[in-house]
Amino acid sequence: MRLQKQKVGKSGDKEYFKWVVILPQDRITQLGWKEGIELIDELKDNSLSLKPTDKQKSNSNKEEPIYEDFKKSIKNILQRYPAGLTWAEIKDKLNYYQIAPNNKWVRNLEKDIGLIRIRKEGKMNWKLEHTTIFTLGYEGLDIATFIKKLKSWNIELLIDIREIALSRKNGFSKGILKEELKNAGIRYRHLRSLGSPTALRHKLREDWNYKTFFEEYRKHIKDQEIQDAIDELSALAKFKKAVILCYEKDHKTCHRNTIAEELKKRGWIISHL
Length: 273
Hints:
Elements lengths: L1 E10 L2 E9 L2 H7 L7 E6 L2 E6 L1 H7 L6 H14 L6 H8 L8 H10 L2 E6 L2 E6 L3 E6 L5 H10 L4 E4 L13 H10 L3 E4 L7 H10 L2 H11 L3 H16 L2 E5 L9 H10 L3 E4 L1
Parallel strand pairs: 7-10, 7-11, 8-9, 8-10
Antiparallel strand pairs: 1-2, 3-4, 5-6
Helix pairs in contact: 8-9
């Protein structure tokens, strides 16, 4: 084993160091120590001894949860707290004693249950990827009622898929809508390329042939630029509870329904509000 001196910082002309003791793996195995345990030191004559705290000793007799049980518990607790929890909050609620989680298990959780970890206000927040995307048209709603509806569903992100984000309805043009959402704690994102092209909209107003409109729009979204925008929408919705916005009240007469169909193919659950 070795003693190492490591520089940890500098303030002005003064440098700060810490001392690290490198222990061989066989010693750690023999002692039954695990990463993250709390140790106390005791100095006697010229010798220094390290040992687990009394709390750690009492906890060492507890059976460490196997991965499958751990995975199930983490998934259940994060489903109950969709806004997320820190590891400290998780271990407190589940009565775990590990100061830090097993890194390998955390990586497995990312693959197995869609765990994501986001730094928020200086702390690492654990939460599950969202699996549902909502859609909503603002036809027949005033801005106050519209915002209230979003809040009632705990929406965190609104994705505007109008080609031109302007409206004769007060509060629904891009600038003021973004500001209203910000005041309600909801983020706004405009993905203009997902809008129905002007030519298709004008033709629909002339013949009201929805069958032809949707056939043409389905062809339109096969373009790689549109597929990339749908990928972007998917990526955004994993991290925040999202709603897709357009005008029509009935999603069946709105191009957002076609976008929803594409998202379903990618494994998303769609809910039309």
